[in-house]
Write a structure and sequence with these properties.
By secondary structure, the protein is an alpha+beta fold. It contains five helices and eight strands; from the N terminus they run H-H-H-E-E-E-E-E-E-H-H-E-E. The protein is globular, with a radius of gyration of 20 Å.
Amino acid sequence: MASHKDGEKHVWILKELDDLHSAFHAMIDEGAAAGLCGIAHEGKSATQRQRNPWGGSVSVTRPELGREHCAVSVVSRYFVLTAAHCFRGEDRPEWVTVSVGSQERRAAELHIHPQYDLGGRKDRGVPEFYDYDVALVQLQEPLQLSDTIRPLCLPCTEVASRALRLPPNLSTCSEHRRLLLPRSNIPSFFVSDRGHEGLQRYNILLRHGDMVTFHPVTLDPVTPY
């Protein structure tokens, strides 16, 4: 392992990839890096939360109807991303609670994609239409970020530009799309909470045509990223 600095004279030889993961994790200053997106600890000693620090859940407790749960992903201290179908039109923020690791937060607002409409194509013979099936839950209080609670990277945000090593003030959504969505199958994974089995990863392939156009978003109303 070595850097590309001019005149670099030092190199480290690590026995296994796990040694590299552990060395990289030990180099991170958690005080300065807690807000960086897309960082996870992949070493053998990592806990499930360190491997999947953006995973969490949202619960909706409807009076006299019981409680339902959905998975969420942390995208900033004040927002988590989930599916629009987790909510109903009459749902109120006070019915919604978000849990990430050991932290629990009440919802301040629910932001459902304006083009999501489950029954919007019944007249065309499509009983359930899941395009634009995304929602943001805004939290009343910010999450405390750490090595077990981190945001994932969303395109068209400054933190994603830094993760892609692009100038935050000069990069564009088109550049993010070009780098993140090459015209080929994209190896990816999603995380599912399997109860007593914990957070489990499942490998998938994303096709270029499955993705929608990126649009800029602001995710932190107090301290914008």
